[in-house]
DNA sequence: CGTATTCTTGACTTATATCAATGTCGGTGG
DNA sequence: CCACCGACATTGATATAAGTCAAGAATACG
């Protein structure tokens, strides 16, 4: 598959890179289309590549020994993902699956050192990316430790609206198919509880649901709920 | 305070560094003694330094707006901590407090880039450290999402025994003062629940408690509990 | 169309938090 | 050195948020 330079160029990760450097980088990359439902890599697999999401949406999940699944994160366009080797692992710690038709770039993992050395900006950028991810994880831990489910779900939905929101006539739509089960796996609860919460919100005019659909009608209202407003 | 080179030398972080490089690095470092209960830095403070723990034990905590506290991690000798700048923050996201008499090394944050560039091994090492921390965070999220409190506490105690365990006649002792409240803040529960759990374990001969003390008498027993053995 | 997901909703159960009271340790100062 | 105080811990009673179990409805898809 041919690589569309203009798409890559527009990503903040590469914005200060010279055309030659960019070309050199892309020379080693392979572009690939991933259809909805397909996995880019599976948990436990040997990490042969690291990736960049150009277009679409992925979710990264982990399953525990006893079969329970959690969503580790959602990958948005422009995000690096699957750089297990940089974190001294030989296998992928989770499964990355397309929840919408996606386009990715793949590099062989053994190119990571070059990738980083040839362009120090990338090294810094990568470290900051991981740092951000660490902070997100801590935020999630803090929320799970101290907040009840409804607030956690509110926060999760607000995050999604920021990262994957598309403005619509009556509010902000989450721009990819997302099920109640997904939201449950992001917040550490059950789909039943999520369903009840969303139904209650819908009755209050905060959101509008639907099968794998979510529209936020009242952002400020949701925000105040997330901040802990009692009712 | 004078820096003890032999202590530094023994840390894996520096083991393959030449004497000259090490000297160059230490030239910019300041050693400091921190007495029990004192904070090395406080949440929200401008990040002027990054640190290395030489001796002792610290806990890093965060407080939420509504005053609830969680323990983000425990810092063990040899660990880097407080490198907020590397993660593109200007302030410290948490408070680092000595739970035992400690000795730390401090470098000005603006030296971080040199620190990293002059010795690429350190850059890699730092990134791996952050990577590990990210994995730990995900493990914690996974546990909080899927496991009941008793198993989480078991896992937390086992981790502590690995990272801060000292072998004793009747088992493994957690080698620093740790309260029920601390364990609660590490596992996202209350001190009451922790107290009940530890009492039950003590009755079964798994552990031996005490004021800010904890001795694990039956590691295999605890492990099987952590792995989900029904009773 | 019928079949399979996904979602909703009710009834019930349970783990864990909350509230409340009391006990115990260990260091400080009289 | 002993008494007292404050921090830490234990334990019971009660409340409740959220999970589990169960059934059915709605929506999408082949």
UniProtKB/TrEMBL annotation, chains A, B:
SUPFAM superfamilies: cAMP-binding domain-like, Winged helix' DNA-binding domain. It comes from the Bacteria. The keyword Transport does not apply. Residues 13-110 form the Cyclic nucleotide-binding domain. Keywords: DNA-binding, Transcription, Transcription regulation. Residues 147-220 form the HTH crp-type domain. Gene3D superfamilies: Jelly Rolls (2.60.120.10), Winged helix-like DNA-binding domain superfamily/Winged helix DNA-binding domain (1.10.10.10). PANTHER family: CRP FAMILY TRANSCRIPTIONAL REGULATORY PROTEIN (PTHR24567), LISTERIOLYSIN REGULATORY PROTEIN (PTHR24567:SF28). This is Crp/Fnr family transcriptional regulator. It comes from Shinella pollutisoli.
């Amino acid at each position: 598959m041919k690589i569309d330079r203009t798409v890559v160029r527009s990503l903040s990760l590469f914005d200060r890179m010279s055309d030659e450097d960019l070309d050199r980088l892309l020379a080693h990359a392979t572009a690939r289309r991933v259809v909805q439902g397909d996995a880019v890599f599976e948990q436990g697999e040997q990490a042969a590549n690291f990736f960049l999401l150009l277009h679409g949406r992925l979710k990264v999940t982990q399953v525990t020994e006893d079969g329970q699944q959690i969503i580790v994160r959602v990958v948005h366009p422009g995000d690096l993902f699957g750089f297990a080797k940089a974190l001294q692992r030989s296998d992928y710690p989770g499964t990355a699956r397309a929840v919408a038709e996606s386009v990715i770039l793949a590099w062989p993992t053994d190119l990571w050192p070059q990738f980083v050395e040839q362009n120090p900006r990338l090294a810094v950028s990568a470290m900051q990316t991981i740092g951000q991810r660490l902070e997100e994880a801590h935020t999630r831990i803090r929320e799970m430790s101290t907040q009840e489910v409804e607030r956690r779900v509110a926060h999760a939905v607000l995050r999604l609206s920021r990262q994957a929101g598309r403005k619509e006539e009556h509010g902000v739509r989450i721009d990819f198919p997302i099920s109640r089960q997904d939201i449950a796996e992001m917040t550490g609860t059950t789909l039943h509880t999520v369903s009840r919460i969303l139904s209650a919100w819908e009755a209050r005019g905060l959101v509008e649901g639907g099968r794998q659909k979510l529209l936020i009608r009242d952002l400020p209202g949701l925000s105040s709920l997330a901040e802990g407003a009692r009712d």
